[in-house]
Each structure stands twice: as C-alpha cells, then as structure tokens.
Amino acid sequence: MSTPTNLMFTCSFIIFAIGLTFHHTHLLSALLCLEGMMLSVFMLLTMWSLNSNTSSFILPLTVLTLSACEAGIGLALLIASARTHNTTNLKNLNLLQC
Amino acid sequence: MNPAIMLFMLPLTIMLSSLFLPYSKMNKPFHAKVLATKLAFFSSLLPLAFFLYDGLVVTSHEVYWLAFNVCPIHISFTLDKYSVLFLPISLFVAWSIMEFTVKYMESDPKIDTFFRYLIIFTLMMMVLVTAENVVQLFIGWEGVGIMSYMLINWWSYRSTSNKAALQAVIYNRLADVGLAIALAWMVVNNLSLDIQGVRASPDLALIPALGFILAAAGKSAQFGFHPWLPAAMEGPTPVSALLHSSTMVVAGVFLLIRTSKLIYSSETATMICLLLGALTSLLAATCALTQNDMKKIIAYSTTSQLGLMMTAIGLKQPELAFMHIATHAFFKAMLFLCAGAIIHNLNNEQDIRKMGGLKKAMPITSSCLIIGALALSGMPFMSGFYSKDAIIEALNTSDINFFSLAMTLIATTFTVLYNLRMIYFVVLGSPRMPTLSALPEARQTLNPILRLAVGSIAAGLLISINMLPSNIPQMTMPPEIKLAALIVTALGFLTGAALMSTAPTLQPSTKGTQSPLPFKMTHFYFIIHHTLSTITLWISQKLSNHLTDQTHYEATGPKMLAYLQILMTKALTSLHKSRINSYLKIIALAMMLILLLSLP
C-alpha cells in the first residue's frame, strides 16, 4: 500500500467482503455488499491506471459495465425469488440443499 | 444451310412443335400429336430418298457448344446410312403405336400427358440416332432412360410398377458408368469423340471398348443386366411396344454399331461381345419357354433377339446387326400391339393359360400374331429371315468358338418353340376364359397392326436391297451350313407340333405346376436383388457404422471421457451439502487468519 487512498479502498473492500459473508436475514444486504466490493475494485483500478504510465486502460470501464449488469441480474433474481417464495428470509432459500 | 439438313430439321421441328400446341383451345390435343408423328414420318422419307439416290451423307455442325481445348464439342446432326434408315422406321413404328394408343387408352384421364411423354421419348431417340459425337448421343441416351422410367411408372400407384421402374433406372445407370468411363478415357488419350469411330492400338482400345460394351449391356438388357426388361412390362402396352421392343433397347446395340471400329481394334472386347450376346440369346429364350404372362414371353423374346444383335456385332458385322434392328422393330412392335389388343379385349387378362380359341373371336389380330411369330422365327422371305438368316450364316462361316455358335442355334430352336407355345395357348384350342359379351376388333386398333404387318412382311426385302454391306459376307458354303438356320427352326417346329398334338393325351403332372429349376429366374433375382443388397447393407452397418463411426471415433474418445466423468460426479454428488453461508464464512476466516499471521 503505497498511498493512503489505496489503503482506504482495500479496507473498504475487506469490510464489504465481511459484510457479504456474515449477512443474516435479507438477500438485499448481500447484494449491496457485492456492489460495494465492485465499486472499491473499480476505484483501485482507476488509481492504478492514474499512477502508471500506460496511456489507454479500458479495464476500469469494462469492470464497471459488468458490475452494472451483475447488479441488474441480482436484483431480478431477488424479485423473482421473493415473488415465488413470498419471503426474503435467507433461511428459506434452501431448495437446492440435499 | 444445306437443304438436306433443312429437310431433316422438318421431322424434328414437327415433333417439337406438337409439344407446344395451345391446349386450351383443343378438344383432344392428342389427335394432333398422332398427326404430327405421321407428318414427321413422311417428311423423314425425304432424307432417305436423297440417301438412296446418291449416297448423300449429310453432317452439320450447328452450335459450338462446349469449348474444351482438346475436344471441342458441337451440337451436330449427321444423317449417315444408319440414322437415315432408322429415322423413318422408328417414326413409322411410333406413328402406328400412337394411333393404337388413341383407342387403347381412351379411358385414361391423363392421356394428354401420356402422348407428351411418348413424343418426348421419340425426340430423344431421334437425338440419339442422329448424334455426331458421343456426348450428344449420351444426351439422347439419358433422355430415353428417363422417359422409360416415367412411362413404365405410368400407373404409379402400383408398387410393382414402382419397383419395375426403379429396376430400369438402376440397371441403366449402372451401365452409364461404362459410357462415362469410355468418354473420359477417349478424351484423356486424345482419341476423337466423333461418331465415325477411330481405331486404336489393342491395349489402348480395350478400356473404352469395355466401357461401351458395359453401357450397351445395361441399356440392351444383356445377361447380368437383363431383369429390368421383363419387369418393364408393368407399363402400358404402347410403352412396351415403343420403348422396350423396337426403339429404346436397341440404343445400346446402336451405340456399339457406331463405335464398332474402336471395339474391333481389341480382340478381347469383340470376343466378349460375341459370348455375351450368345449367352443372353440362349438364356432369354429358355426363360421365354416357361412364362405364362403373354407380355413377358414377348419381353424375353426381345431380350433374346437383342442377344442375337450383340452376337452379330461380335462377328464384326455391324450392318447385319443394324438390319436386324430395323426388321425386328416391325414385327416386335406388331406382336406387342396384338398382345395389347388381346389383353384389352379379354378385360385385362394377361395369363395365357386363361386365353384360348381366339382365332374365331378375333381373326385379324390372331392372324397378325401368327405373321409376327413367323417373321420372328425366320420364316423364309419374311422380314426376319433377311437379317436372322444372314447373321446365322455369318456365324457359321466365321472363325469363332463353337460355344457361341451352339448357343445361338439352340436359341433359334427355342424361338420357334416359345412362339408356337404362345400361339397354341392364345389362338388355338377352345376358350378357357369366362364368357364375355363381345370381342370387338376396333378399326382404330386394327389399322396400325395391319400397317405393321405389311411392314414386317416387306421390310426385309426392301431394306436388304438398298443396304449394301461393306463387309462382304461369305457367299459360298455347303448346303447344310446354308440351311442350318432353317433346319434348327424346322426341328423346333416339329418338336412343338409333336408336343401340341400329344399334350392332351398325356397324364397331368402330379409334382406341381412350378417350372423346373433351370428355368427359374427367381434365383438370379434373389442373388442380385436381395442378397447383394443385404450383404452391402450389413457390411455398411457393422463395419462402417458400428465399428468405425461409433466405436473408434466416438466410444474410445469423447464418450468414454464423458462416461468416466459422469461416474465420478455421481459418486461425489452426495457429498455436497451446498451451505454457501458456511463456506463463505470459512473463506473470510481463513483470509483474516492469513492477514494476521503475515503481519509481523
């Protein structure tokens, strides 16, 4: 971690990751943490491309686009499962469990 | 343009234009087609007259069609001694048959289409006969093959017609391979594709000669390719009369006559011609002795005569073969038309065991049947005599093997025997059919038959006077050799007459009425049609499909891999618990531990 900005974004990534693993009740909180992870990764990539000498670096923009698609899919899945199961409690999403 | 070629174009144009008549304005268009064929016949006599007057051979190169550097191919017509004589004969026979068809198939709703098919067939035959190079002959060859298929399959809702038409097409197609090989060889080796023929060295000429012989064997129903001709009797009688007696099946022999110089360059090919012809002649005559279907007797008789024509080619006498083609057309077409009239009048009864005593009921038709049978057997000074006797004389005085001579003489005996059998069952005796109301001999069916009867009596003399042979035949021979054909024919006739007179007094057979083993052609059909196909399909399924495709390609490679993976997956699936929550927590815990431990 050469700069404090880098440290900040790395810590935010870790916090979001912990939030993703230790969510309890609602699927939406997991999705929010996922979005937060994507956002911090995007900021880290942008800082990296600013500090380096490569001129065109399209990776941040690609990651942003893909994370937007991912958010859309996550929300659609949330709504679909909420409509069929009539609950958003995570304990009830155990259809594939054997 | 040459005036003779313009005169030739007249029959072609008349026939072509009859296909494009305005149908909607006509009540019965097929009458116009009969008239067109009649006009074409009379206009084809003009080139014949020119030829007989001064031996004028006309060739015209019309269109520069395929521009290959080695052998440019033109669309060109030639009227040499073979085609200028064959055209009037084929048009005469076609005219008579079409007039017969007007009455014979008057109850058919698709009679217009039938006439169109007949006209297209006659056109293709004209293209074949007047072709000046082998490629144009091939065009006509294929055309007559296709029209034969469509005409045999006229009643296409019958499964036996479908099978018969398929047999015709498949056997002809197998033979066309020979023609294609011969064409390719001739082009590659810079031999000319002209119809006058070229000579070549014996080893160079062997392969194209064999190719042409294969093509002729398939088209002219020689032994090995013969089953399609009796099966082709599934078509209507005019089809049998036009295609499978006078015109189409002689296309193979005609090809050999045209390319005879090439074949004679190779002694092996000539010998093959001779033996194949003699074998076909004998075997077909043997089969004709035991048939009970009237049209099949005449079909096997056609095959036997085609074998005789092939024998004549094998004797290096192509003009005798051509003369036999010309005379055979008349009496064979007449035999088929008589058979058609008899069958039609007996309410579609084709079995000769159910006919009899027709000499009182249908006198003119049975007289023409007897005239045809006599001409076929080589009765002296009828038309068949001039060609058949000449061939047998040439056979006797040539330096060839004895086997073919013996086979041909025995076939001649059998010819008169099966003719006599047919006449005995159909014309003589007392009727064995159920009583009918009337057996009218309509004038419209009789006129063509009588015309062909005149032809089959007179044509032999007329043609042989005007066609001088280029191979001088042997004129002097001992009287026994000269009379050999007559002697064997007379022997056959005496045997037949003896059997006829003693047959009513013999005991009826107690062993059953199946024909004895050597006469059964079903063994041939079983081996060639059933067993060969079954073996091929069995090999293709076991070797190609099961072994190569499914085992070597699929099973030992990808499918084995997939199978093993699925085995393992099935074994391991029960160990999954899918607790994503706990897995994620363990991952987070492990990462925190790593971070903590790496902090020094």
UniProtKB/TrEMBL annotation, chain A:
<dbReference type="Pfam" id="PF00420">
    <property type="entry name" value="Oxidored_q2"/>
</dbReference>
<keyword id="KW-1133">Transmembrane helix</keyword>
<feature type="transmembrane region" description="Helical">
    <location>
        <begin position="57"/>
        <end position="80"/>
    </location>
</feature>
<keyword id="KW-0520">NAD</keyword>
<keyword id="KW-0812">Transmembrane</keyword>
<keyword id="KW-0999">Mitochondrion inner membrane</keyword>
<dbReference type="GO" id="GO:0005743">
    <property type="term" value="C:mitochondrial inner membrane"/>
</dbReference>
<keyword id="KW-0249">Electron transport</keyword>
<dbReference type="GO" id="GO:0016651">
    <property type="term" value="F:oxidoreductase activity, acting on NAD(P)H"/>
</dbReference>
<keyword id="KW-0679">Respiratory chain</keyword>
<comment type="function">
    <text>Core subunit of the mitochondrial membrane respiratory chain NADH dehydrogenase (Complex I) which catalyzes electron transfer from NADH through the respiratory chain, using ubiquinone as an electron acceptor. Part of the enzyme membrane arm which is embedded in the lipid bilayer and involved in proton translocation.</text>
</comment>
<dbReference type="InterPro" id="IPR001133">
    <property type="entry name" value="NADH_UbQ_OxRdtase_chain4L/K"/>
</dbReference>
<keyword id="KW-1278">Translocase</keyword>
<feature type="transmembrane region" description="Helical">
    <location>
        <begin position="30"/>
        <end position="51"/>
    </location>
</feature>
<dbReference type="GO" id="GO:0042773">
    <property type="term" value="P:ATP synthesis coupled electron transport"/>
</dbReference>
<protein>
    <recommendedName>
        <fullName>NADH-ubiquinone oxidoreductase chain 4L</fullName>
        <ecNumber>7.1.1.2</ecNumber>
    </recommendedName>
</protein>
<keyword id="KW-0830">Ubiquinone</keyword>
<dbReference type="InterPro" id="IPR039428">
    <property type="entry name" value="NUOK/Mnh_C1-like"/>
</dbReference>
<keyword id="KW-0496">Mitochondrion</keyword>
<feature type="transmembrane region" description="Helical">
    <location>
        <begin position="6"/>
        <end position="23"/>
    </location>
</feature>
<keyword id="KW-0813">Transport</keyword>
<dbReference type="GO" id="GO:0008137">
    <property type="term" value="F:NADH dehydrogenase (ubiquinone) activity"/>
</dbReference>
Automatic annotation (TrEMBL), chain B:
<keyword id="KW-1278">Translocase</keyword>
<dbReference type="InterPro" id="IPR010934">
    <property type="entry name" value="NADH_DH_su5_C"/>
</dbReference>
<keyword id="KW-0472">Membrane</keyword>
<comment type="function">
    <text>Core subunit of the mitochondrial membrane respiratory chain NADH dehydrogenase (Complex I) which catalyzes electron transfer from NADH through the respiratory chain, using ubiquinone as an electron acceptor. Essential for the catalytic activity and assembly of complex I.</text>
</comment>
<feature type="transmembrane region" description="Helical">
    <location>
        <begin position="402"/>
        <end position="428"/>
    </location>
</feature>
<dbReference type="InterPro" id="IPR001750">
    <property type="entry name" value="ND/Mrp_TM"/>
</dbReference>
<dbReference type="Pfam" id="PF06455">
    <property type="entry name" value="NADH5_C"/>
</dbReference>
<feature type="transmembrane region" description="Helical">
    <location>
        <begin position="297"/>
        <end position="315"/>
    </location>
</feature>
<feature type="domain" description="NADH:quinone oxidoreductase/Mrp antiporter transmembrane">
    <location>
        <begin position="131"/>
        <end position="412"/>
    </location>
</feature>
<feature type="transmembrane region" description="Helical">
    <location>
        <begin position="481"/>
        <end position="501"/>
    </location>
</feature>
<feature type="transmembrane region" description="Helical">
    <location>
        <begin position="137"/>
        <end position="157"/>
    </location>
</feature>
<keyword id="KW-0813">Transport</keyword>
<feature type="transmembrane region" description="Helical">
    <location>
        <begin position="200"/>
        <end position="218"/>
    </location>
</feature>
<dbReference type="Pfam" id="PF00361">
    <property type="entry name" value="Proton_antipo_M"/>
</dbReference>
<feature type="transmembrane region" description="Helical">
    <location>
        <begin position="364"/>
        <end position="382"/>
    </location>
</feature>
<feature type="transmembrane region" description="Helical">
    <location>
        <begin position="583"/>
        <end position="599"/>
    </location>
</feature>
<feature type="domain" description="NADH-Ubiquinone oxidoreductase (complex I) chain 5 N-terminal">
    <location>
        <begin position="65"/>
        <end position="115"/>
    </location>
</feature>
<feature type="transmembrane region" description="Helical">
    <location>
        <begin position="449"/>
        <end position="469"/>
    </location>
</feature>
<keyword id="KW-0830">Ubiquinone</keyword>
<keyword id="KW-1133">Transmembrane helix</keyword>
<feature type="transmembrane region" description="Helical">
    <location>
        <begin position="239"/>
        <end position="257"/>
    </location>
</feature>
<feature type="transmembrane region" description="Helical">
    <location>
        <begin position="114"/>
        <end position="131"/>
    </location>
</feature>
